[in-house]
Amino acid sequence: MEYHEIGKTGMKVSALSFGASSLGAVFHDINEPRAIEAVHTAVDGGMNFIDVSPYYGHYKAETVLGKALREIPRDKYYLSTKVGRYGKDGVNTWDYSGRRATESVYESMERLGIDHIDLINVHDIEFADLNQVVGETLPALVELRDKGVVGHVGITDLQPENIKWVLDHTPEGMVETIMNFCHYSLNDDMILDYLDYFEEKGVGVISASPLSMGLLSQRGVPAWHPAPKPLVEACRKAAEHCASKGYPIEKLAVQYAVSNPRIATTLFSSANPDNVRRNLEFVEEPMDETLVREVREIIGDQMRVRWKNS
């Protein structure tokens, strides 16, 4: 496992890290003891960065993760969670007010059973008034950083241009990290257009979803996936091509996602410890560069096709 510092935070994290969204049963029902084992397997395998959100499973992911963390020494991992997106009784809610952000941090710490959050993020800023994020949400989190309640402050979004807008409108050092998903993967490397800018700002880059939320998998996309049908079909053909070579597209996708050292870490999520072990094995093996080129040729003009978050 390779390790990279996230920007200037001092947090040196594993190239592949654990996203806890699956613990909230956001993709399918989970077996809780196995889900807890998945967390332990990740940390034991060298993943030292864990990301979660109160939104995932409407607080369930944080609750299950908290149970897993009880048995893991605090110095074995960095913990990242978020504010802004929530939900109750199956209904999604959003609140980016400074007051709610502050309350949310303390609520998350209670669910997680910790007394310090290493990285707190404003979650999916495309759903917010960006002026509110700049003028209210982020200052509330910076105040908690100044008090030592949280270590570092970041923002997350699917759309890199929203991230850039916020960074353009905040003082240097207010935002220390950005998290972007589905834009450094076999079918989409849009985030590369922004890396110079992020580095000039001294901001660390976290990527997520190396499988592009199921596009780059043999199982295929879930029904809710927002990608257009031509892109889904192109990725299906790419998966079939990889299978014909005896090289699962999931393996290639994970290897590609962690191949750029300018991206500090890439989050993947699974509540299955066997999948965690498999991904750990993937990153220890060399990537087939020829197959990468073949897959990208198959996807062709569907590269970088945009879709909206949901």
Automatic annotation (TrEMBL):
GO cellular component annotations of the record: cytosol
Gene3D superfamilies associated with the record: NADP-dependent oxidoreductase domain
InterPro entries, per the entry: AKR (IPR020471), LGALDH-like (IPR044479), NAD(P)_OxRdtase_dom_sf (IPR036812), NADP_OxRdtase_dom (IPR023210)
CDD domains for the chain: AKR_galDH
Domain NADP-dependent oxidoreductase: 16-298
Domain of life the protein comes from: Bacteria
MF (Gene Ontology): L-galactose dehydrogenase activity
SUPFAM superfamilies cross-referenced by the UniProt entry: NAD(P)-linked oxidoreductase
Protein name: Aldo/keto reductase
Organism this protein belongs to: Duncaniella dubosii
